[in-house]
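User: Predict the structure for this protein chain, please.
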Amino acid sequence: MSSGYSQTPRIMELAQQLEADIRRRRLKPGDPYLSLTDAAKMLGVSSSTANRALQLLSQRRILQRVQRRGTFIGSLQRESSPGLLKRVFMLVHRSYLRQEGLVADGVLVGIQGVLPGADVQFNFLPVTDPTDYVDGLIGEVLRAKETAGIVVTKVPFVVQRAVKDSGLPAVVHGSLYPSIHGMAWVEQDNLGIARLIADYANSHDCSHVCALTREVMFPGDNIVLREIGRLLGDSGRKSGHFSISHLPDDHGAIVAEVSEIVQRHPTDLCLLCRSEAKADAAVAAIDQLGLKGRRRPRLIVSGLYQRPKGECPYPYVFPKVRPEEIGAAIGRLLAAQVTDPKTAPGHIVLPVELAEP
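Assistant: Here is the predicted structure, written as structure tokens:
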């Protein structure tokens, strides 16, 4: 679309540069190609970014990466995707790429591994009412001659409903809203997340649990928070021992809110942070107040799609599978809807685990 909301992912742009380099040099299948270091130098990016671009071309079968031998030219023709799926539109908010950039790249690589012939395009939803934009995109897809699918991540109810009503192959990366039926979806084990958090709070004798969650709630958030409240109640806690604060990922706002929460619950407090930004700001507030011992709140982080690199500064709940595996699951669900549209939409639950420092 020409509205300015569409964008080719950077990882795909870098992969296109590498593919153009292969063709310009007239390399043939079996010829050696650039090392990771050389690819990063040519693209002017970090090794980790270059690795994702090489990984994408490997998933398309254009490159073949052989352990301890190097990278070689594979097929110079992209394979067809199952069901001849030619394009995948990923409907997201821009904040998703800011907060989950590496995860988004991993999901894209996973989708490409299952659908090597499909082009993937991010479509950012307008900040205000997205209805007209989504209706226009769906109309454009339906008028096109090529088969296309849609993936939606952290979108409002009206977007899920419009995509569902379109009849196009579609997958929700997340949970379905109430009354939305007949869509495929891939979600984290929300009940498992709640159980891990409640068990953590109980095992550390936390007298109050406060969830620092998003300004805008999504279906999975509601499931997690409702189940945490139920589990804490079943363990003998009173309803007032669990609270929720809806906050932007703004450092100052989170610091101010945490400072007030600590005043109300001066000992044995557990803060459930639904993003790393909230956890980092909460730690800053706690350090600023100089809290020690029982007065220092415990933190636990959920809402992530991959295990943080390096040492975990606080407990994290995250899926046991890598982002690439999540993308592959999404790709398989899309392909199944094209090759066998009469089958019931698939539902995949990603198991979760807790990692402590």
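The longest strand covers residues 85-92.
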